[in-house]
Records
---
Amino acid sequence: MKRLFLSLTVTLAMLFVLTSCAKQPTQEMNDSKAAIDAVIADGGEKYANEEVKALNDQLTAATDEVKVQDGKFFKNYDKAKEMLAKVKADADALKAEIPARKEKAKNDATAALDAAKTAVTDAKALLAKAPKGKGTKADIEAMKADVAGLEASLTEAEGLIASEDYMAATDKANAAKDKAAQVAEQINQAMAKKK
Amino acid sequence: MHGKICAFLILCHVILYGCNTAPVPPEVAIAETQEHEIWRAGANFYMPAEYKAHKAALRTAKDHLIKQQSRLSLFRDYEPVRKEFGDIISGGNGLLNQIQEYKRTKLASIVAQITYFQNRIDTLKKLTLLINEGRAARRQLMSAELLLTEAQRFAEKGKYSDAEKKLKIIPIYAASASEAISPVLNRYADRNQISKWRTWANETIEVSREKGSYSIFVSKIDRQLVLYKNGRPYKTYTVGLGKNGFHDKLHAGDLATPEGKYYITKKLPRSKYYRALLINYPNEEDVRQFARAKKNGLISKRAGIGGLIEIHGGGKEGMTYGCIAMDDHHIQELYNLVNVGTPVTIVGAIDYDNIISSTIKDL
């Protein structure tokens, strides 16, 4: 009987030592959360929105695993720690990738602005070829005002690039480019009518 | 004795860890994947309250799942959790359908707005062209058109809230453009003003009839010069006007073409613009109007009333400083027919339902 009691005590003590002493991985949870926050602070929601959402979901899953273990008498946070380590590693990797994505967005915006500037310059060059004299046709005059409006939008796009709002700048520049091409086409048509 | 101990230990392990762990219901993973889909569909933009409620329900279900997972496997019962997640999936499907429907409605509304604004911009552009007006208005309209292009692009990408943000700004530019040209346009829709112009036109035609002579009648809105003979239209020519030709001339340098009853004071056979017929601008009414405008501070105190308004050649497409321009062969023809003293009446419009009055109704 004595031996039975001893065996039981040893077994339970071993189980207690092996499992229930495990501590909640608070530090890992904080580190993972901080890593995601750092991604967001660097513009993650703008440049990697989908990945940020996935990271947050992973963090929630890891936190849920922690909660599962919290509720157990014999706790084992190994899986949760593994999950949290992955969240942190993924977040760190994404954070490292953000500058390159930002740079790409900047380059795209700059290229779109350059293309728009070229299109507006082309339209202006066409207007310069329009008939001169005491006055010109009303439509040519109107298109000069249109080109002035386009130039104003290029200035806006430049402002957006300066304020690092690259996507909005790209959208604006692309719109200006399309419109400049339309105006150029209209100038050509007006000049053809004049001939 | 040893056998009993072993049996007891095995029993302990079975109680503590179970023979096998019941699997988590597949509905859990489905609900999680679905939540991502709902987010990707733009739930937080289009149905934030519903999405929040869905996420809260999912959270509660997950907490219930956690509770079950925390239990000893023998006591785990996933059935209520499975049912709960099943309900969430049904709710999620409903939410996805709602989002799709909302987006369809949104897209239809955006397309309708784009069409409406495009028509409005086109109308305003047409009017600016018609009245040779709108350096300022055209710039505003270009800004509106650029926003429209951006809105179209956003709509194509499914970014409806971004498209709507752009569309919301357009009325500001359209209103600004409309405001810039409305002082000119409103005169062409003002029945009292048109009645006055009609009276002048009738009087001029009457003079031609009574005296059996020529009278010149210019309608700015039609860009037409009609030569009347014996009270009947004899010749009709297309003409160009001042750069601000649809305004009534008020002072020197305003590039407007005067409105009123005039007559030819001089025939100029060697004009810079081929041939020219000088008229007696400013007449008495112009002088009075000029004095009133000056007194009311509508024009600069240093402004002059201007003069040297002619009907001349140079081409009907030209925009002048306020004169009436014709093709050279037409001014030659007119020059040969009329004499000093021939009445020249210039009006904005004589039809109440003219192109401007009917167009601005649509604005």
---
Amino acid sequence: MTLPNTTSTERAGLLLRAWPLQLLPWAVSAAIVGYAFIVGGYVATVIAFALVYVVFVTGLNLFMGFANQVSFGQNAFAGLGGYASAILTTTYNWPVLPAMIAGIVLAVVIALIIGYPTLRLKGHYLAMATLAIGLITYEIAVEWQSMTQGYLGISGIPPLGIGSYEIISDRGQLAILSIVALLAVFIAARIKSSRMGRAFLALGASENAALALGINVSRTKLIAFLTAAAFAALAGALFVHVVGYVSPEVFGLHMVILGFTMLYVGGIGSIAGPLIGALLISLLPEVLRGFKDYQDLFYGTALILLLIYAPRGLAAFFERRERTGSAS
Amino acid sequence: MITRLSINNLTKRFGGLVAVGEVSFDVPVDGVTAVIGPNGAGKTTLFSLISGFLPPTEGTIRFEDDNIVGLTPDKLAARGLVRTFQLVQLFPEMSVLDNVKVGQHLHTSSGLLAAVLRPRATRAEEAQVEAKARELLDLARLSHLADRPAKILSYGQQRLLELVRALAAQPRLILLDEPAAGLDANESKHLAAMIRQIAASGVTVLLIEHDMSLVMSVADRVIVLDFGRKIAEGTPAEVRAHPAVLEAYLGGVEIADV
């Protein structure tokens, strides 16, 4: 066996070089949120939406990044969570927190009903089935007017808050959303380094090997799917209470495309990826606003360059030293 | 002789092709049993049938006291029947240590909530999983690479990792699909020693192998397949002198080489 034996000093050197780079996505994220907090106003609103997407994309990452499955239908669960919370707080006068929880429970139940048969499908079939879920949810939001008010949407949704205490200010919302987003990222990190997380990663890498080691693959996929649905529903519920309004367009297919972009740019499978991806992709249109008519062109070019030079996303790009290291 | 695995009249047809035809043999609890045969003899199909990855067309497979035909691979692993693959199936992005931890999935129970809240029982379970994984990595001489991604391992190291990962599942019967494929002479020797050690610890070993030197050095019994049929069975010495075997191996060139 011809292995370069890394001595402890070499390894320490490797860590020293790798450590600050790995921290970079976190530092940049903190700087962006901090800046928005200080500046307030419009920037704070943009970053507030970005933080909601951090929750959504973190869930997507569990299912797509860890378990290596494809879902085009996560917007359906965001829609379910958002609409349930919006309807319960407006039509039925529920307090915000129980309404949000009810929305998440509803989304998970629906995800169970849909996921149980479809997760037995593989590859493209699963992707097509999930795409259908998103489209059906959209149609229901449009057609079930007595509940959803169709295209008009529901307005006057109360802001986030507990009891009589409502968080109305930009900065207050930013603070609570930062906490929730960090909590989501923390949960994903804990899952990744646990028995279930390892099972997600294992079936994502080789279903046959996972099966051969006794992992119930379809059940484990279902657990990953339900968890991702819960994250999506939480994001959807946060969204409607932050904006105060919901319409079918809010949870359209563009949400899936945006979520995918954030996930791939940030770094699929990594913990910091959804965070940095959601923040940067949300900021990009603002940064490119100066280019006016050429905005889309620059946006597209920026994405292509990112995917060429950091194909595994920004978070993985900064981890690269550690990954390929010295032994090979 | 106590039997761990008993195969009776096992047949697998793909359309008109008989990949495995009316094969019967017993695998005793003790020692190492090898299945050999020329390319296309049906060895890997046989393994896929035993490990639940393919359903047989006919016949029965008894593991200990039960007919296991129809059980999925994960259920079989839970019963103590674990396999490795001819093409190494590691989890390449996961660390070497985490690969072995996955092997212990069956013998641990923490769920998602425990993952997030990490109560004491979960932390204790995790510590145990880690200790056991490190122990197994010592056995494979891979401890110094525990925290590296599995994909950086050499081919031989990957094979050893797959083997100890399977051991982590605590099988009573382990199926090794060409464990020496791609190994150099030194690695092959280390592997042979490990296989003897596994068998000595009470785990029944059933392996498929092309590498005759490995078969002759580790196997207690050899079953020879040719065109999906069992053509001979016996000790390595008996089998290498068997006329049908010499015939199957084109005048016995491969065996005579050993």
